[in-house]
Protein: Diguanylate cyclase/phosphodiesterase with PAS/PAC sensor
Amino acid sequence: RAKADGSGCLRFFAPESDSRMQQRRALESDLRRAWAARDFQLFFQPIVEMKTRRVSCLEALLRWHHPERGWVSPETFIPLAEEMGLIVPIGEWVLTEACAAAARWPGSLRVAVNLSPVQLAHIGLAEAIAAALRRTGLAANRLELEITETVMMKETPATLATLERLKGIGLRIAMDDFGAGYSSLRNLQRFPFDKVKIDRAFTAGLGTSQQSAAIVRAVTGMCQSLGMVSTAEGVETETQLAALAREGCSEVQGYLFSKPVPAAQVGALLARLDGLKVG
Ligand code: C2E
Ligand code: MG
Ligand code: MG
Ligand code: MG
Structure:
């Protein structure tokens, strides 16, 4: 914001924004170094099928532990990686690591990988995915891609062609964070989604807000009519779980079942959850 500093000149940058810029530069160079060292981890969070109350899929979530700052949120470093042109190689690493992990799980389990819009627009995506499957031996129908709707804003015929090609080899495609941001029903018609993940803001309102319940009911009903799976994100309480069961939601994910865990803990997690009948 421009402000007068008494010298008769306008300062366009307050000192805070200078230091914020410096912080950002520092984080960028740390991120570059972390990537060079492959200093990332993938965590996995289970997704539970409502009907059977068993884990059907695990979502891969990228983790970066910074030597001084501790855990940096992907909401912070993914946009940086996108701007720095690092998201394509990092995303390929995520795909390969996720497929390699899933290849060691029981064959009934799928893995879901988040895709940046930058990756989706990238010409080499389908080939990178095919390579990750080939290298790890994971069957294509055990890999699911999660795409947020911002992607659709940049829709090109190439995006649609890429999604169709990936579906053609057997992958599933999920719309992530449905209802947050620029949700458009037209996108559900235009793109070949298998699944809609209902944003956790709606789950959070269940039990307290009639509106949230009505919206969840409408979305799950629509998914059912369109032959899509509906997954509720951010399920934290038994009350929310019961409401989601009532509203006909097909899958649930959230801290009620488990926080995301390192790959090495997935076995123990599955033993705990699949022995357990929640609700
Ligand atoms: P997302 O794909 O919507 O992932 C769900 C987020 O909700 C995760 O945050 C997860 O830890 C969190 N979560 C799960 N259950 C609960 C719950 O019950 N309560 C609450 N409050 N939160 C819950 P996380 O891991 O911090 O990731 C944030 C976002 O960063 C993801 O949102 C995704 O958009 C992005 N992201 C994460 N990993 C990757 C990646 O490998 N590639 C790309 N492109 N994006 C990623
Ligand atoms: Mg996701
Ligand atoms: Mg989400
Ligand atoms: Mg999200």
